[in-house]
Every structure is written in structure tokens, then in C-alpha cells.
Amino acid sequence: MAIAVHSFQWIPPNPTSYLSQNDDGPPGPESPYSFGLYRHLTRDLGFNVKVVIPSSQKSWIGKAYHITETTEGRYYYPREPDGLGETSYVSRPLRDGEIAEWILLDGTPATCANIALHNIFPGKIDLLISGPNFGRNTSAAFSLSSGTIGAALSSSLSKIRSIAVSYGNVERPTPKAYFEPAHNLSARIICYLWNNWGKDPGGVRNGEVDLYNVNVPMIGQLLNDEGMQVHWTFMWRNSYGRLFKGVPAVEPPKLGIQQPEEGSDASKKMDSENTGYDIASVKIGDLAFKFSPDIQDLITPDLSTVPIGSDGWAIGKGFASVSPLRACFAEAGNTPLFSDPDIGTKIIKL
User: Fold this and answer.
1) Beta strands in 180-250 (DSSP E)
2) Which of 41, 112, 197, 199 is spaced 20 to 30 Å from 243 by Cα?
3) Bridge partners of 321?
4) pLDDT (mean) for 276-296
5) Helices (DSSP H) in 32-104: which residue ranges?
6) Which domain of life is it from (predicted)?
């Protein structure tokens, strides 16, 4: 089912304030889309957008939180035309060419979202927009690992309307001519969803849909006069295999036996403990692994095996997709157990 988003009327709440999030960090090669969408939302649509994002790349981290570390931050001042800018440990007035003050936190996307909502802008955010992610977040295999969706899940559990946006890179490198049309389409989808937010009796916020997952394929269809079709979709339930590869063991360098110098007991202690090796450089035999996922079948699946109407099907057909999601692990549906009116009295006899 396609969504008509080519013409829309923006009906803002009062007050209107948006929190922008991502899992790719500040503008740069690993985060080429965030500044463009921010500029489109603020300059062209007049959105009041606050930005609190991780200070570095945090992809594939899901909805993890920092719980033992102290999360520290800095202020960031993006400039035209690419969003690159300076950081400061204290807030300061904008300088010539700087367009806004953002906040970078040394934390996960979900950590940033929660801190922004409850510590930095408490009670001031109406909608969280997470993204645009540098790469698709379609199907269960990608979505369950996504920091972009993780931030949206985090905010939806705080009863804030949330939308995760991802741009599926197809051509390498992605032509810059696609950037603005993608930002324009994403903004229209965001406006449409705000004005037509769905109902869900199981939703945590007033019986509403908890969050939406939006995927826009970065392909030539964005440049066509008729635009790109946008479809309601469900999440393709798929799987993956190997995500890590072994790293060859490295023989640590030999330093030779060190002789203790004269002095206190402290000065006689050596990191090598007289083993002849620099402990800091020793690798643990062959137990070394690096993230190197084998996921080509997820990126270019045989479309005949992908369920029609799923997010994986939509991106394969060159359509943008919008999937309503719940902020929970899905129960096993369509079973006699969950249709039994006496489910609350069911006891497992072991």
C-alpha cells in the first residue's frame, strides 16, 4: 500500500520542538547525511531542532546504554556547506558562518537520546528524529542491531513520538545529487507521519504507534519528476551468519630481560615481570577477532524469497518504506496460547 506524501500540510503542535539523533556521529565521511536533513528541516520548514548525537561512530550497537562510564560531552558548531565545525567544552555564542549549537556526547545513541530527553531538554521535546543513517535499516537482521533504531526505541520508551530514518546506499559512492531529494522526501514523510500518527492499542503512549522505521533507497528514482513511491511495510524477518573473522596471531616483540635499577621497591617493578615481553603488546594467541560481517545475501537478496510488502521487498523494488513498530520484543503470535482468554491462569508444569 503506497502512501501519498507528495503534497502535505504541516500542522505543528504547540510548542514544537524536535530532537535529532543518529548513530554515525557528527558530519563527516561516516555521517554525510545528518547536516543536510537538519538544514532542510530548520531552514526550509522552520522546525525548531535540537541536536544531541554521539561524538563518534556507533553503528551496530542497538539500544545499548552506557551504565558504568561517566558520559561526557562537548558543544559542536557546524558551518556551511558541509556541517564541519569546532568543538568547545563550554557553550559560547555563534561565530561567523556557524549556524547552530549541537551537543556531542561520548555515549551510545540510546544513551544520548535518554540524556537529551531527561537531562538536557526535559519536557521540551515533541518528536525524536533519529538519522538519517548512513545505510539501510531494513529487515530484522539489520534493525535489531541498529543504533539509529535503538535511539528511537529509547525515546519511545520515554513516551516520545519517534521516527528512525535511514538512507540505503546502493551506488558507491552515492551521487551527491541524490542528497537533497532524499532530505526533501524524508521531511515530507516526517510531516505526514506527525499529522497522521497511527493508533496501536498496545502502544506505550496513549494507544499510539510507538515508533516508525523509514528507509529511503539512494537511487536515481529520487531525481524523477514523479518522485519515489513510499509504501507501508512490515519488517522482513530474516537472519545472518558470520559477523566476525579471525585475526592472525601476532608474535609479541622480545625486549630481553630487564635489570632493575637501584632505588625503591616501586622502581624495581617492571611491566614485563622479567618475561622478556612487553605485556601491553601481547595478543591472546589465536583468540582475536574483528568485525567483518558476511551479509551480502542481506543486501542483495533474491527478491523472489523476500515477502511482498516487507521493508526488504520495498528497498529491493526501489521504493521508500515506512514500518510501524512497537518498542518491545515481539511475542510469538498466531498461537493457541495467545488467543486463549484464560492465558493469565496458565501454569507451566515441569
Assistant:
1) 211-218, 230-232, 244-246
2) 112
3) 215, 231
4) 71
5) 34-39
6) Eukaryota
